[in-house]
């Protein structure tokens, strides 16, 4: 009898479950909420795991970028439509067992949301601590700007874009307005042992140099920073700030001095990043003199850097131009290093050049032992050339220079010759 009742109960339960399936639409599993029930007995607002999370996790394993982009954009739309689900996605950042690629992608999506809800979640996670491999992505996501124009996470060719998660490129640009976020990023820049984390923080803070705390954190990286990319980011940001700041600013002189101090002891990437802001920004006469002093450095790469920056500054004023042209001519005709001579030749190619610049270029085209210097002189004469002497030098090089690329450069310049 007991057995009959048992089978009857099982059969009845099966029928009820089958009936429920006819009217219940499966939904993603719920995570239990610790929020208390509403006092009036109303149902709690329980956030659900967005279905797009599972889809994105599956797509990440495919390593197919178009699919990953589609999955990330779908998650972004889902979170925008159901903001209560942000908390569930945020849990991935704290879960040490969550797939790293999924956690990174979730952080990028959170950082892309309009408003500050996603960014506040990222800041809280950064403060409370996450696994070290995730910090870089959190920082980049805090600094990202992602317009909702259908191109999210795919602005690969933008100079302010960087890969933050598998298949996802973020657009890092603009000042960080929130002081708490700036402070957290400055601490990571100064204290993190991971170069990738420091570099991410420097990239996010580079447009926030109007804030003194950011300048202090960036300036600290110029003193003994072991990673060249981090130093380059910090130095370029400070040089850009100094270039648009009045010389009377009490902090500016010390900042420019630290940037100059970094040049001789830095790698090529640092000088490369400094060239544009130092060439286009404001420099005092004393700072221009210090730039000229670098043309005497024992390291030819430093000399070439100084020649290049000085040459880019031609047109700033008659006094500065005259001294710079004389210095560049001397370097073109006398420096022992071919790279320095080539840099000088390229920068002397300006419209309406001074007579001594034309003479130096003609001399280098006809006599320099290095073909790259001769080719640079030929190209510059195409920009600057005027007069019979320059035309004859180009004609001679086009016909008889032993190197084919010099001959080609001379022919191209003759075609543009006035």
Q: What does the model show?
A:
The protein is mainly α and 418 residues long. The protein contains 21 helices and two strands. It has helices at 2-23, 51-62, 65-81, 86-94, 100-112, 117-128, 132-143, 179-191, 195-205, 212-220, 228-243, 252-262, 268-280, 285-293, 300-312, 318-334, 338-347, 355-367, 371-384, 388-400, 404-416, and strands spanning 161-165, 168-171. The protein has a two-stranded antiparallel ribbon with strand order 1-2. The model is unreliable at 1-47 (pLDDT under 50).
Q: What structural category arises from helix and sheet content?
A: mainly alpha
> What is the count of helical runs?
21
N-to-C order of helices and strands: HHHHHHHEEHHHHHHHHHHHHHH
The largest sheet, given as strand count, sense and whether it forms a barrel, is:
2 strands, antiparallel
- pLDDT averaged over residues: 86
Strand order of the largest sheet: 1-2
Terminal CA distance reads 114 Å
């Amino acid at each position: 009898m007991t057995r009959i009742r048992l089978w009857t109960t099982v059969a009845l339960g099966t029928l009820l479950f089958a009936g429920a399936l006819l009217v219940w639409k499966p939904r993603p599993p719920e995570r239990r909420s610790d929020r208390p029930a509403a006092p009036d007995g109303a149902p709690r607002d329980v956030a659900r795991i967005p279905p797009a999370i599972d889809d994105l996790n599956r797509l990440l394993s495919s390593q197919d970028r178009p699919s990953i982009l589609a999955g990330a954009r779908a998650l972004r739309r889902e979170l925008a439509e159901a903001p209560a689900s942000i908390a569930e996605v945020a849990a991935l950042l704290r879960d040490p067992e969550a797939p790293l690629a999924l956690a990174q992608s979730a952080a990028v999506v959170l950082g892309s949301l309009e408003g500050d809800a996603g960014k506040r979640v990222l800041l809280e996670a950064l403060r409370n601590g996450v696994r070290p491999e995730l910090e870089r992505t959190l920082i980049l996501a805090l600094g990202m700007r992602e317009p909702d124009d259908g191109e999210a996470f795919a602005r690969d060719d933008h100079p302010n874009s960087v890969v933050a998660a598998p298949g996802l490129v973020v657009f890092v640009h603009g000042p960080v307005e929130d002081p708490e976020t700036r402070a957290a990023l400055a601490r990571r820049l100064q204290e993190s042992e991971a170069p990738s984390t420091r570099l991410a923080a420097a990239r996010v803070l580079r447009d926030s140099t109007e804030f003194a705390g950011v300048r202090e954190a960036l300036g600290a990286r110029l003193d003994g920073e072991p990673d060249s990319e981090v130093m380059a980011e910090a130095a370029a940001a400070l040089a850009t700030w100094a270039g648009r700041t009045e010389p009377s600013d009490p902090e500016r002189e010390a900042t420019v001095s630290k940037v100059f101090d970094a040049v001789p002891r830095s790698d090529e990437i640092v000088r490369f990043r400094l060239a544009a802001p130092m060439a286009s920004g404001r420099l005092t006469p004393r700072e221009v003199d210090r730039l000229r002093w670098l043309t005497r450095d024992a390291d030819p790469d430093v000399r070439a850097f100084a020649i290049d920056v000085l040459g880019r500054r031609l047109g700033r004023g008659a006094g500065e131009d005259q001294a710079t042209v004389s210095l560049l001519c001397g370097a073109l005709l006398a420096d022992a290093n071919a790279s320095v001579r080539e840099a000088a030749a390229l920068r002397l190619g300006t419209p309406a050049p001074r007579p001594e610049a034309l003479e130096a270029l003609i001399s280098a085209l006809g006599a320099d032992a290095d073909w790259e210097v001769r080719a640079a002189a030929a190209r510059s004469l195409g920009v600057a050339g005027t007069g019979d002497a320059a035309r004859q030098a180009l004609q001679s090089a086009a016909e008889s220079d032993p190197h084919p690329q010099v001959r080609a450069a001379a022919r191209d310049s003759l075609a543009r010759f006035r």
